[in-house]
Automatic annotation (TrEMBL):
Similarity remark: Belongs to the SAM50/omp85 family.
Protein name: POTRA domain-containing protein
Listed PROSITE patterns: POTRA
Domain POTRA, residue spans: 45-125
Topology term for the membrane: Multi-pass membrane protein
Keyword presence, Mitochondrion: yes
Species of provenance: Anguilla anguilla (European freshwater eel)
Keyword Lyase applies: no
Alphabetized Pfam families for the sequence: Omp85 (PF01103)
Source superkingdom: Eukaryota
């Protein structure tokens, strides 16, 4: 029987933590038309051996979980399919630059007439890799330099040092990542970092120095993250014009918190979804493991997408959150919620929708809600269809939201009444540009409504860039 060379039939989906792997160009499966092979395609076969060629520092026992399903294949087509799935799992580990599959008949003593041997020919990544790229956040950009040690202990561990210099934030950090053998979605990470950010709408500069640990794991159709974070926060005024309320917040604080995040994501795309839903729920509890910050923080995000006629999509989003302090100490300006800007309630300046202004400094709020309705459509007349033009979409939007502080002695009904008063809302239209599958740019014409005294609006053209949009 001739040899069958099989490669991945489609690109590897980029899920989970940063992989640092680019899947090779797709090759079609080549099958030599020989009589014996045609017979094997229509009868049961037995996979007798699976080989891994090209391993250097990688521990072979770690990979047995990824290739074990190949032994369960019952016919040649099944062997090719399960070998393809195993190849994807190997690439997903982020430790191989290339993986090829060779399927051949068994040879030597003990070889069965219908026996097959499967060989995975791998090329490991270098011990040390460097990277330089740009990153888009919520209405800010940054240059990122990184040094990575992939697979440095032989079981898909990754040690990363990263330095980021941005328009509003500068940071550096060291992280260690380790997946569970046989289940890449179950992983552990440890991070040590320093982050300095500027928030002009609050005349505030914040420097965080901290350490955090994360455990990620799936349960049924949900993904969960358990996290502990200890951070020393240094708050300072950006200039002499900072209000007295901001000056009162200045100084050093220590926060130690436990948090849990749950996510269900059935969307076909994170940036331009055509169908599916997203639900994210995050809880953070601070103060019970030390530090001088003590609060319970809840944050919820919901998004629904429905494809309509003419390749248009209707999208509905809803955000909400509450910050409940423990004891008599008020909440910190660094922990509160903010609204406004091109990524949330469009038509209002960045984080300067409702938010307790003090001499044009915004201190945020302890409860908020925001909602949006979007109608996404292709560009008029579909220029560049099937190519560059598919990176663009037009949209018509209606956004609304409110944010306030709470007097916890008034009761839930009074809290809801506060959130229903003086709602800020806006509508408009714009053009969107997708940047890969991680971020997008927006150029919108906004008409803000429900403007209150102290709000800063952006009536007309507003530009935004980010990874999370209302």
């Amino acid at each position: 029987m001739g040899t069958v060379h099989a490669r991945s039939l489609d690109p590897l989906p980029m899920h989970g933590p940063e992989l640092g792997v680019h899947v090779d160009d797709v090759d079609l499966v080549e099958v030599q038309p020989e009589t014996k092979q045609e017979i094997l395609e229509n009868k049961d076969v037995v996979v007798q051996h699976v080989h891994l060629d090209g391993l250097g520092r990688t521990k072979e026992d770690f990979l047995t979980h990824e290739i074990a399903d190949v032994f369960t294949a019952k016919n040649l087509i099944d062997v090719m399919k399960k070998s393809h799935d195993a190849r994807q799992k190997l690439l997903r580990l982020g430790i191989f630059r290339q993986v090829e599959v060779v399927i051949d008949t068994s040879q030597g003593d003990g070889a069965l007439p219908n026996g097959l041997d499967v060989t995975f020919e791998v090329t490991e990544l270098r011990r040390v890799t460097g990277s330089y790229n740009t990153m888009v956040g919520n209405n800010e950009g940054s240059m990122v330099l990184g040094i990575k040690l992939p697979n440095f202990l032989g079981r898909a561990e990754k040690l990363t040092f990263q330095f980021s210099y941005g328009t509003k934030e500068t940071s550096y950090g060291l992280s260690f990542f380790k997946p569970q053998p046989g289940n890449f979605d179950r992983n552990f990470s440890l991070n040590v970092y320093k982050v300095t950010g500027q928030f002009p709408w609050s005349s505030l500069r914040e420097t965080d120095r901290g350490v955090s640990t994360d455990i990620n794991f799936p349960i049924w159709k949900t993904n969960h993250t358990l996290k502990w974070e200890g951070v020393w926060r240094e708050l300072a005024c950006l200039g002499r014009t900072a209000s007295f309320a901001v000056r009162e917040e200045s100084g050093h604080t220590l926060k130690s918190s436990l948090s849990h995040a749950m996510m269900i994501d059935t969307r076909n795309s994170a940036i331009f979804p055509r169908r599916g839903a997203l639900l994210k729920i995050n809880q953070e509890l601070a103060g019970y493991t030390g530090g001088d910050a003590s609060f319970l923080k809840e944050d919820v995000e919901l998004q629904l997408n429905k494809r309509l006629f003419w390749d248009s999509v209707l999208s509905v989003s809803l955000w909400g959150g509450m910050l409940l302090p423990f004891g008599d100490k008020p909440t910190c300006i660094a922990d509160r919620f903010y609204l406004g800007g091109p990524t949330s309630v469009r038509g209002f300046s960045m984080s300067q929708a409702p938010g307790r202004p003090h001499q044009w400094d915004y201190l945020g709020g302890e409860a908020y809600w925001a909602g949006g309705v979007h109608l996404y459509t292709p560009l008029p007349f579909r220029p560049g269809r099937g190519g560059f033009g598919d990176l663009f979409r037009t949209h018509f939007f209606l956004n609304a939201g409110n944010l306030c502080n709470l007097n916890y002695g008034e009761g839930p009904q009074a809290h809801l009444q506060k959130l229903a008063e003086c709602i800020r809302w806006s509508y408009g239209a714009g053009i969107l540009l997708r940047l890969g599958n991680i971020a997008r740019l927006e150029l919108n014409y906004c008409i803000p409504m429900g403007v209150q005294s102290g709000d800063r609006i952006c009536d007309g053209i507003q530009f935004g860039a980010g990874i999370r949009f209302l």
